Amino acid sequence: MEKRVRFKSAWLPWLLIAPQMAIVLVFFFWPAAQAIYQSLLTQDPFGLSTQFVGLENFERLWNDDSYLDSFKTTAVFSVLVATVGLAIALLLAVMADRVLKGASVYKTLLIWPYAVAPVVAGVLWLFMFASPMGIAAYYLKAMGLDWNHLLNANHAMSLIVAAAVWKQISYNFLFFLAGLQSIPKSLIEAAAIDGASPWHRFWTIVFPLLSPTTFFLLVINIVYAFFDTFGIVDATTQGGPGKDTAILVYKVYYDGFKALDMGGSAAQSVVLMVVVVTLTVIQFRFVEKKVNY
């Protein structure tokens, strides 16, 4: 029989969730409401004069070619960060799950990057690829590739993707490793006895059982690519060359704090919030159907 907890007081359940609800209200709903309100206004950089303009800020966005281009840039960036990050983390987790000697040291080293701030991660990768003194740029030039992320848009995109993937790879690794260790070894051993190859065992047994973890990490990495990579972009390319790496979250900052377009920046933040919420809903609505719980 299903057991349910019954509270004698009708107010006790609300009292227990009150701290969490207060945090959500103060740090999510209130800032979101403020952003929506400010997106309908236009004001001078010092906030001395404010005028209600309705949807004019949003109309200007759709007529701004550079803003529309940032959608394509963000899409390419987020797909690369999510797919490459999950693939490498899964590979490392599979390798770590099989390591016997020095396993704890190996796993600890893979967790370290998660403790690094996004800005620091961006600076580290910037130093490695800074042409011509960076060690990575030096060896790339020795192999015939003249690396210059300041002029080459593909190099700049590769740099911020690599830094973003490296920063998030520890988080993905931990969840994949926990998922692998929760899979019953008897299933894999039975498949091995039946003659299934390691590659066949992974794709027919291990990976399907990892689908809940993979789906969760897919949602988290998409949100990470849209929001938490601002520090990496700002520390490495600052949206350049030109605006080829100006993802949506960086454009919100640039237009608001450098171009001093407060209303337009607020409108961009609202659009960004709607895009991320929509993508999350789509993933839960369609992708989750293929998840085996």
From TrEMBL:
<feature type="domain" description="ABC transmembrane type-1">
    <location>
        <begin position="71"/>
        <end position="283"/>
    </location>
</feature>
<comment type="similarity">
    <text>Belongs to the binding-protein-dependent transport system permease family.</text>
</comment>
<feature type="transmembrane region" description="Helical">
    <location>
        <begin position="159"/>
        <end position="180"/>
    </location>
</feature>
<keyword id="KW-0472">Membrane</keyword>
<protein>
    <recommendedName>
        <fullName>sn-glycerol-3-phosphate transport system permease protein UgpA</fullName>
    </recommendedName>
</protein>
<keyword id="KW-0997">Cell inner membrane</keyword>
<feature type="transmembrane region" description="Helical">
    <location>
        <begin position="75"/>
        <end position="97"/>
    </location>
</feature>
<keyword id="KW-1003">Cell membrane</keyword>
<keyword id="KW-0813">Transport</keyword>
<dbReference type="GO" id="GO:0005886">
    <property type="term" value="C:plasma membrane"/>
</dbReference>
<comment type="subunit">
    <text>The complex is composed of two ATP-binding proteins (UgpC), two transmembrane proteins (UgpA and UgpE) and a solute-binding protein (UgpB).</text>
</comment>
<feature type="transmembrane region" description="Helical">
    <location>
        <begin position="266"/>
        <end position="287"/>
    </location>
</feature>
<feature type="transmembrane region" description="Helical">
    <location>
        <begin position="12"/>
        <end position="33"/>
    </location>
</feature>
<feature type="transmembrane region" description="Helical">
    <location>
        <begin position="201"/>
        <end position="227"/>
    </location>
</feature>
<dbReference type="InterPro" id="IPR035906">
    <property type="entry name" value="MetI-like_sf"/>
</dbReference>
<dbReference type="InterPro" id="IPR000515">
    <property type="entry name" value="MetI-like"/>
</dbReference>
<dbReference type="Pfam" id="PF00528">
    <property type="entry name" value="BPD_transp_1"/>
</dbReference>
<feature type="transmembrane region" description="Helical">
    <location>
        <begin position="109"/>
        <end position="139"/>
    </location>
</feature>
<dbReference type="InterPro" id="IPR050809">
    <property type="entry name" value="UgpAE/MalFG_permease"/>
</dbReference>
<dbReference type="GO" id="GO:0055085">
    <property type="term" value="P:transmembrane transport"/>
</dbReference>
<keyword id="KW-0812">Transmembrane</keyword>
<keyword id="KW-1133">Transmembrane helix</keyword>
